[in-house]
Amino acid sequence: MNQEDRAGHGVDVAGQPVIDPTANVLQLVEAAVKRLDDLREAESRHMHSTEELRAEYTQQLREAETARIDAIRAVDVGAVNRAAEVAATQALTLATQVSVSAETLRTQVAAAATASTVALAAALEPVQKDISDLRRNMYEQQGQRAQATESTATRSNSWGIWVAIAGVVAVLAVGLLAAITTVTVVLLTHG
Q1: Predicted confidence (pLDDT) per residue in 58-102, tens digit
Q2: CA–CA separation, 81 and 75 (whole Å)
Q3: Per-residue model confidence as pLDDT tens digits over 149-188
Q4: How far apart are the C-alpha atoms of 49 and 57, rounded to whole Å?
Q5: Which of 3, 25, 26, 135 is exposed most, by the fewest CB atoms within 10 A?
Q6: Residue 176 CB-density burial (10 A; 0-12 exposed, 13-18 middle, 19+ buried)
Q7: What's residue 16's pLDDT?
Q8: Contact at 8 Å (CB) between 116 and 188?
Q9: Using CA atoms, how far apart are residues 164 and 101, in angstroms rounded to an integer?
Q10: Between 152-190 and 22-148, two packed helices, what is the crossing angle to 10 degrees?
Q11: Is the C-alpha dihedral spanning 105, 109, 114, 120 positive or negative?
Q12: pLDDT of residue 1
């Protein structure tokens, strides 16, 4: 009998029939596949859970960053508003100071003008009195000469005196006017 003719159940070395491992292997393979499926499902749940957590915490980070930026903006807006208030207060103070300074200067200029007018009048009074005295003396002398001498020669001679006196008076008046102008300018600039 050859090997091919001996078909049937196999036996092991001890002569015991050999158990077909196919059913056992199929059970083990089925258990392994189920275990792999369970692992894949657990991994999928884990990945899904991780993604949800990541999305949740990303949203929380965005909200925290938005709140931080809003707080910075609020501080900046407050600083700008405060700076505007300070600038407005400074502008108002400066406007008040300018107004007070202008009024003070106006008062000082008016007082200086009044003082210079009074000083000029006081300075001119003796000069005007002297000119008035000179005129009176000239008229008196002219009247005395007119009575004493009626000759034309004397008249032409006295006319020359009058011209000389008038020249002297004119020179004195011009000098006096220059002095008065100088005094007025000095008083206005130093007053």
Answers
A1: 999 999 999 999 999 999 999 999 999 999 999 999 999 999 988
A2: 10
A3: 665 555 555 666 777 788 888 888 888 888 888 888 877 7
A4: 12
A5: 3
A6: middle
A7: 84
A8: yes
A9: 54
A10: 160
A11: positive
A12: 44
Taking only the tens place, the pLDDT of each residue in 81-91 is 999 999 999 99
Tokens linked to 130: 């002297």
Residues 125/189, Cβ–Cβ less than 8 Å:
no
Query: Helices marked H in the chain — which ranges?
Result: 22-148, 152-190
Which tokens belong to 111? 């007082």
Contacts of residue 173, Cβ cutoff 8 Å, sequence gap at least 6: 131
What mean pLDDT value characterizes the chain? 83
- DSSP code for 11: B
CB 17 within 8 A of CB 11: yes
Asked whether the predicted pLDDT for residue 5 surpasses 60, the reply is: no
User: Three-state SS for 85?
Assistant: helix
Give the sign of the dihedral formed by CA 46, CA 48, CA 52, CA 54: positive
The answer to whether 120 touches 184, Cβ cutoff 8 Å, is yes
* Phi, psi dihedrals of residue 74, rounded to the nearest 5°: -65, -40
Q: How far apart are CA 68 and CA 61, in angstroms?
A: 10
Both tokens assigned to 43: 């991994």
Any idea what DSSP says for residue 7?
A: -
Confidence of residue 7 (pLDDT cuts 50, 70, 90): low
